[in-house]
C-alpha cells in the first residue's frame, strides 16, 4: 500500500490552511483562513470536519484571533481571546474536541499572566501548535493499539470518515485499518456511504483508493445485511464525544450499526483520542446532538429529490450505549469504563 500524509489542517504563514473537504473527491483544493469568521464558516460547512481535526482547527483559530487583535493591552487581548474561543467552540456542539482545544488555547493566554501582548500571542500560538503536534502522535498511538484487534485477513465496516481527513495525523478508526494494512494485514473495507453528506462515499473512499486498500462503498442500510451474511469481522468507528460510562456519540447511523453488530456477534470498537472523552458527563443523555439543515437530506448541490416543502429531520450524530461497545481504543490502550483521568490510565 502507499503511505501518504494529508495536510488536513496546518498553520501556514499566519493563516489556518485546510484541505477543503467540501470539494473532495473532485478536487484537492486548500483554503487559507485568515479570520475567525472564515474559520467558523469552514467548521460549520464541514470544509474541515472530524472531531480531532476541528479541535486542531479551533485551537489555531484562537491563535488567529490573538494575532489579529489590534492593540497592546494584555487584559483587553485576553478578553478578546476569550470571546473568540467561545464563538469558535460554539461552531459545532457535539464534538467535545472543539471546546477542549478552545479552552486549552484560551487558558494559555490567561496563564501568561499580566505580561506583554506579544508574549500572550506567542503562548496561544505555541499551545495551538502543540495540540496539532500531539494530534499527529495520538493517531500513531491509537493505530498501534488498534492493530492487534484486527485479524491478519478479514473484512471491516467503517462509518463516516475517520482517516487522515478527520484528524491532523493518520486518523482514528480508519487510521487503525491503514496501519494494519501497512503492517501486512490483508483487509477489505466495507465503507458505509454515510448519508446525508457522504463522508464515507466521498472521503473514506478517496483515502482508501489513494492508499491502495481494497474496499467497496455500500448504502448505510446495507450494513446489517452484510453482517447477517457473515461477511464482517469487525466494525470500527470514531467518536465525537464519549461520556464517563462509555456512551458514545458519533455520526448518525452508528447506533444502528452497533445494534446489528451485537445481533450478529460482530465485535464493535470505538477508536478515539482521550480529547474526545467528556468525563464531566455521567452518560450519553446530556451529549448535545447537532441538528443540521433539512436541505442536506432533501437535496444535493442544488438537485432536489423530494417534493417541494418536504420536511426532514437531520441529526448529525447519534449516541450508542456503552453496552454495545466492546472496547475504546485510545492513545493509552484498549480501554473500558470506568475511564480514569487520561494522566492516570494504563500505558
Ligand atoms: O460531521 P462530521 O463529518 O464532522 O462527523 C465526523 C464523525 O462523526 C467522525 O466519525 C468522528 O468525528 C470521529 S473522526 C476521527
Strand portion, in percent? 15-25%
What structural category characterises the helix and strand content? alpha/beta
Percent in helix: 25-40%
Shape: globular
Element order, helices and strands?
EEEHHHHHEHEHEHEEEHEEHEEEEE
Low-confidence stretches: none
Assembly state (oligomeric): single chain
Q: Care to count the β-strands?
A: 16
Mean pLDDT: 95
- Report the major sheet: 7 strands, mixed
Q: How many helical stretches?
A: 10
Q: Tell me which ligands are bound.
A: 5-S-methyl-1-O-phosphono-5-thio-D-ribulose
Strand order of the largest sheet: 6-5-4-7-10-15-16
Distance between the termini: 29 Å
| CA-based gyration radius | 20 Å
Report on the architecture of this protein.
The protein is of the alpha/beta class and 347 residues long. It has 10 helices and 16 strands. The chain has helices spanning 36-44, 51-68, 74-89, 96-111, 117-147, 173-182, 199-211, 223-228, 254-263, 295-298; strands spanning 9-12, 15-19, 30-33, 153-158, 186-192, 215-218, 234-237, 241-243, 248-251, 268-271, 277-278, 299-300, 303-304, 317-320, 327-330, 333-335. The strands form 4 sheets. It has a 7-stranded mixed beta sheet with strand order 6-5-4-7-10-15-16, with helices on both faces. Strand 5 (186-192), helix 7 and strand 6 (215-218) form a beta-alpha-beta unit. Helix 2 packs antiparallel against helix 3 and helix 2 (51-68) runs parallel beside helix 4 (96-111). Bound molecules: 5-S-methyl-1-O-phosphono-5-thio-D-ribulose. 5-S-methyl-1-O-phosphono-5-thio-D-ribulose binds at residues 46, 49-52, 95, 160, 162, 166-167, 172, 199, 238-240, 250-251, 316. 5-S-methyl-1-O-phosphono-5-thio-D-ribulose (MRU) is lined by residues 46, 49-52, 95, 160, 162, 166-167, 172, 199, 238-240, 250-251, 316.
Amino acid at each position: 500500500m502507499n503511505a501518504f500524509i494529508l495536510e488536513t489542517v496546518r498553520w501556514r504563514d499566519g493563516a489556518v490552511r485546510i484541505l477543503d473537504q467540501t470539494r473532495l473527491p473532485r478536487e484537492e483544493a486548500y483554503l487559507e483562513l485568515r479570520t475567525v469568521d472564515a474559520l467558523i464558516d469552514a467548521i460549520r460547512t464541514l470544509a474541515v470536519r472530524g472531531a480531532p481535526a476541528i479541535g486542531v482547527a479551533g485551537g489555531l483559530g484562537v491563535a488567529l484571533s490573538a494575532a489579529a487583535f489590534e492593540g497592546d493591552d494584555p487584559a483587553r487581548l485576553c478578553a478578546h481571546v476569550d470571546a473568540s474561543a467561545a464563538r469558535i467552540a460554539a461552531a459545532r456542539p457535539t464534538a467535545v474536541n472543539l471546546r477542549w482545544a478552545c479552552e486549552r488555547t484560551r487558558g494559555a493566554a490567561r496563564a501568561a499572566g499580566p505580561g506583554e501582548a506579544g508574549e500572550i500571542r506567542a503562548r496561544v500560538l505555541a499551545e495551538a501548535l502543540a495540540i496539532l503536534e500531539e494530534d499527529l502522535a495520538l493517531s500513531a498511538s491509537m493505530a498501534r493499539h488498534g492493530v492487534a484487534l484486527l485479524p491478519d485477513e478479514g473484512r471491516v465496516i467503517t462509518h463516516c470518515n475517520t482517516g487522515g481527513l478527520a484528524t491532523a495525523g493518520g486518523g482514528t478508526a480508519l487510521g487503525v485499518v491503514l496501519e494494519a494494512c501497512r503492517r501486512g494485514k490483508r483487509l477489505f473495507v466495507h465503507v458505509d456511504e454515510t448519508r446525508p453528506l457522504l463522508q464515507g462515499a466521498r472521503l473514506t473512499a478517496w483515502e482508501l483508493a489513494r492508499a491502495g486498500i481494497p474496499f467497496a462503498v455500500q448504502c448505510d442500510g446495507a450494513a446489517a445485511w452484510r453482517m447477517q451474511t457473515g461477511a464482517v469481522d469487525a466494525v470500527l468507528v470514531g467518536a465525537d464525544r464519549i461520556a464517563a460510562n462509555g456512551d458514545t456519540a458519533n455520526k448518525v447511523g452508528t447506533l444502528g450499526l452497533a445494534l446489528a453488530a451485537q445481533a450478529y456477534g460482530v465485535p464493535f470498537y470505538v477508536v478515539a483520542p482521550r480529547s474526545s472523552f467528556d468525563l464531566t458527563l455521567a452518560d450519553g443523555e446530556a451529549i448535545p446532538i447537532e441538528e443540521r439543515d433539512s436541505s442536506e437530506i432533501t437535496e444535493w448541490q442544488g438537485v432536489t429529490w423530494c417534493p417541494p416543502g418536504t420536511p426532514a429531520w437531520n441529526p448529525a450524530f447519534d449516541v450508542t450505549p456503552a453496552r454495545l461497545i466492546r472496547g475504546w481504543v485510545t492513545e493509552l490502550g484498549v480501554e473500558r469504563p470506568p475511564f480514569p483521568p487520561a494522566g492516570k490510565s494504563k500505558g
